[in-house]
Amino acid sequence: MTANASGPPAKEPYAPLFLGLVGLSTALFLWTLQVILRCPIEKRMGIVQTIVYFNVPCAYCMYLGAFACFCGSIAYIIRPTDLSDAVGRAGAEVAVLFGATVLTSGPLWAAKAWGVYWTWDPRLTTSLLSVLIYVSYLVLRAFGGDGEGEKRFAAALGVFGAFNLPIIHYSVQKWSGQHPTVITSKGGGLQHPDMKLALGLSFAAFTVFAITLLWTRVRLELAKSRLSRAEEDALDLGLDDRMEA
């Protein structure tokens, strides 16, 4: 017996995993907001202090996306595959998304702490440079074509961008920047247990969210690659009549 072509479509095998990640991320975000709402207001910064619950985890997720881009780029340079290219591209997108969030929320805190939205603080400046590198990666991939040379050059940008991450992390210690240290033993503003819980939950929520975005974008890029290859095969076999008059 042959399968009925008009039957119901096959179920997506990864749909439960995707829905589980989305559900877990949503639950963590709601729990985080609940804890933040019951946290005491910090005396010096006031309500602006709550930005730390979003700014710091987003910076971490920017690192996570940049690391994924680095791994995918290195793998592509060594041995070009659709998977390594997809991981590099997805990582760059996640790095830009969370980097833009950091560069948006950070100045809101700075306006209260420093009286200005932007100072050329070492950590701010190096973070901006890192985001611009990954923006360049995405612009090259979007408008530079899908040739092998363009992909390798973008992969080189992905590797180069990763070398800026340690500079971001240690810039405050090396160049005496004004950026605060909240999590370390020298930091302040997280003395209450609910504050520490809120930050921990926020880290968990944003991490799951970033992993969900990475996984979804990698699968989408792989599907686009397979579709493009199928279209090329159809043209070679004369099965695509779109070019006919």
Summarize the structure.
The protein is 71% helix and 0% strand.
Topology:
Layout: H1 15-38, H2 52-78, H3 82-113, H4 122-143, H5 148-162, H6 165-175, H7 193-236
Helix pairs in contact: 1-7, 2-3, 2-5, 2-7, 3-4, 3-7, 4-5, 4-6
What does this structure look like?
The protein has 245 residues and is mostly helical. The protein has 7 helices and no strands. Helix 4 packs antiparallel against helix 6 (165-175).
Q: Spans with pLDDT under 50 lasting ≥5 residues?
A: 1-7
Number of strands: 0
Strand content: under 5%
First-residue to last-residue Cα separation: 40 Å
User: Given the C-alpha coordinates, what overall shape results?
Assistant: globular
Secondary-structure-derived class: mainly alpha
Order of helices and strands: HHHHHHH
Largest beta sheet, briefly? none
What is the arithmetic mean of pLDDT? Answer: 82
Task: Please work out how many helical segments DSSP would assign.
Answer: 7
Helix content: over 70%
- The value of Rg in angstroms is 22 Å
